[in-house]
Structure formats: structure tokens, C-alpha cells
Write a structure and sequence with these properties.
- The structure holds two protein chains of two kinds.
- Chain A is an all-alpha fold.
- Chain A has six helices and two strands; from the N terminus they run ααααββαα.
- Chain A is elongated, with a radius of gyration of 22 Å.
- Chain B is 63% helix and 0% strand.
- Chain B contains four helices and no strands.
- In chain B, helix 2 packs antiparallel against helix 3.
- The chains are: A mainly alpha, B mainly alpha.
- At the A-B interface, helix 1, helix 3 and helix 6 of A face helix 1, helix 2, helix 3 and helix 4 of B.
């Protein structure tokens, strides 16, 4: 493991750690460039999801009674459980980055492992919810069949346009779930690199950027949960 | 070039990090747990407000305000925007600005197109019934 240095701009000329790419002047500049790129990507993510949230808002303006009735078919307890999983995973992610700042390999490793497992728990709950919806015929768009859609063993009677509600539900939670899966893949990669001793207090912008991505995924769920599960 | 841009637009993060140049800003563990605790409390609050069932406009406003407070906690502390280079905050705020533009102008169109052409109106004349044909198959 390379010893982290306490280099500053003044000593950047002679100090050249192996993980400093030759086209950067200092670690500070390299890290700042990496983070700048990540924040630009996160700005893009906000705008990417804004299209889905706007579709939700417009559909809800046009079909208020559909949203009121259809949310009864989503289990808010499972939604709340998933909220707790994601909030806790955000905490462990933040602690992993702190672990890198204080140069602790176990703190990095076990916090990322916890984040990965909590992301997995989120996906398991999501799988239970989805398979329940598939079984009951509560499907998006033209797959929705009002003559077969069941809820608690009874024919689901949703006024307005249930097909549009479930299209929005599946696309929003599906896109979010895909982001969780991608985040979990990134964490596997981080675990390998932490184990290899690639990160220290000076060089951990990869860890920090995956952290920023994971927090944005959490942020989107913070809005999805009340909008989909707690409509009143 | 980036350094130059930085110095033009932002106050250096050094001032926030307590004057230690580019040393990472290490927050005490208690801060993280306090933020996490607040997030859990606010989650309980959202659920409680929904279960009580406030009247329609209040319920969605409370839910969204609570969600925005939660989002701010995550962004400012977990994502370190409060302590990081202000340039990152600028990028994030600009993305939110465009989000507001996107929402506002599309909603204006949906809600007021009837004033330009009654045939295209989302709502019927008396405002009680909605014209929804354009969203049906």
C-alpha cells in the first residue's frame, strides 16, 4: 500500500505518487476533476428522472381519483421498509467515505459491504412487490386488463386510467431499481479495489464518486416513496 | 483552466475545511448519526401525516416539504456539498433550476392550452369534467 502523503500545491512538483496521472499537476487537481465530472453526471441524472416525475405530475393532475384509489394497491409498509434500507445504506456509504478520509481499510471495506447488502435487501423487497403485482395482473400500459386485475382476491376497481398509473409506477420504480443494481455492481468493484489496497486518504475519489451516485439514488427514492405509496 | 474557472466562480473549499488546504474535511461520527436519525424521524413523520389523512392540498404539500428537507440533509451532509467546493453546488442548483423550468412550462401548457384553443383544452368548459381523450389509446 502506498503511503499517503501530506503533499500540498507547494510540494506537488517533486512529489508524484503512482496513482497521480501524468496529465494532472497534483492529487487535489486530479480529485477535483473526477468529482466535477461526477457532479455533471448527477446533474444529468436529476434531469433524466425529472421527465418521469413530470409524467407523474401531469397524469395526477388529469386523473386524481386514479392515483387516490390505486395507491391502496401498493403496500406502504414494504415501501417504508425499503426507505429504511436505503437511508441506512446511505449512512454506511457516507461512513465508508469517512473511512477513506481517516485511512481505515476495514472501515471502507465493511461499510461498502453493508451498503451492498442493504441495496440487495432493497431489491429483494422490490422483487416481492413486483411478483405480487404480476400475479395480480396489475400491469402497466396495455398489459393491464381490467377484467383480470385482482386485489386481495377481489376484482380491483380503479376509476380513471389504472393502466397509466401502473405504467408510471413500474417505469419510475424500475428505472430506480436499475440504478440500485448498477450501484451494487459498482460496490463489488470497490470491494475488490479496497481489498487490493488501492484507496487511502489521499486517493479515494472513485469511492467518493460511487458514494455521490448512491446518495442520488437514495434521494430519488425519498421522493418516490411519498408520491407512490402515501398518496392521500 | 479548471483552476482558473474555480477561482472565478467559487470560494475555495479551503475556507470551509478550516484552512488546511486540500486535506479532506473529516466530520465527527456523531454528525453522521445525527443526520441519519433526523432522516428516520422525518420518514416516520411522512408516514404519520399520510395515515392521519390531512385534507387534499395540505397532505401533498407537507409530504413534499418533508421530502425536500430529507433531500437537503442527504445532499448537504452525506454528499458533503456544505463543505465541498461551491462549484459542485452551482452545478447541482443549475440542474434543479432547469427541472423547475421543465415542470413549470409543461404545466402551463397543460393547464392553459384551452384558453388558446378550446378544442384542445385539458378541462371541459365548466371545469368539473376533464377531457382525457388525448391520454387514452
Amino acid at each position: 500500500m502506498t503511503q499517503p502523503s501530506s503533499s500540498h500545491a507547494s510540494s506537488a512538483g517533486h512529489h508524484h505518487p503512482k496513482y497521480l496521472a501524468h496529465h494532472f499537476e497534483s492529487m487535489a487537481q486530479q480529485n477535483a476533476s473526477g468529482k466535477l465530472g461526477m457532479w455533471l453526471f448527477l446533474g444529468q441524472e436529476v434531469l433524466f428522472f425529472s421527465g418521469l416525475f413530470l409524467a407523474y405530475v401531469l397524469a395526477r393532475i388529469i386523473y386524481p381519483e386514479t392515483f387516490l384509489a390505486a395507491h391502496e394497491l401498493l403496500d406502504w409498509k414494504l415501501g417504508a421498509l425499503n426507505t429504511i434500507f436505503l437511508l441506512t445504506s446511505s449512512l454506511t456509504m457516507a461512513l465508508a467515505v469517512r473511512g477513506a478520509q481517516v485511512n481505515s481499510k476495514p472501515q471502507m471495506f465493511y461499510n461498502i459491504l453493508a451498503t451492498l447488502l442493504l441495496g440487495g435487501a432493497f431489491m429483494v423487497v422490490k422483487y416481492i412487490e413486483y411478483s405480487h403485482k404480476f400475479h395480480d395482473g396489475l400491469l402497466p400500459g396495455h398489459f393491464f386488463d381490467a377484467t383480470k386485475a385482482m386485489h386481495n382476491g377481489q376484482l380491483a376497481n380503479i376509476p380513471g386510467a389504472p393502466a397509466i398509473f401502473f405504467a408510471i409506477y413500474f417505469v419510475m420504480t424500475g428505472t430506480h431499481g436499475l440504478h440500485v443494481l448498477i450501484g451494487m455492481g459498482l460496490m463489488l468493484w470497490l470491494l475488490v479495489r479496497i481489498k487490493r489496497g488501492d484507496f487511502n486518504s489521499e486517493n479515494h475519489v472513485y469511492l467518493e464518486n460511487v458514494g455521490l451516485y448512491w446518495h442520488i439514488v437514495d434521494l430519488i427514492w425519498i421522493f418516490l416513496f411519498p408520491l407512490l405509496y402515501l398518496v392521500r | 483552466m479548471f483552476q482558473k474557472l474555480r477561482s472565478l466562480v467559487v470560494k475555495s473549499s479551503a475556507a470551509h475545511a478550516g484552512g488546511h488546504g486540500d486535506e479532506p474535511h473529516v466530520l465527527p461520527l456523531s454528525t453522521y448519526f445525527a443526520v441519519f436519525g433526523s432522516l428516520l424521524v422525518l420518514t416516520v413523520l411522512t408516514v404519520v401525516v399520510s395515515v392521519i389523512g390531512l385534507p387534499q392540498p395540505a397532505s401533498i404539500i407537507v409530504a413534499m416539504v418533508v421530502a425536500m428537507i430529507k433531500a437537503s440533509l442527504v445532499v448537504l451532509w452525506f454528499m458533503h456539498l456544505k463543505f465541498d467546493d461551491r462549484f459542485y453546488s452551482l452545478i447541482f442548483v443549475i440542474s434543479l433550476l432547469f427541472l423547475v423550468l421543465f415542470f413549470a412550462f409543461t404545466s402551463f401548457d397543460l393547464l392553459t392550452r384551452g384558453q388558446v384553443n378550446p378544442e384542445e383544452s385539458t378541462f371541459s368548459q365548466d371545469g368539473s369534467l376533464l377531457r382525457r381523450d388525448f391520454m387514452k389509446k
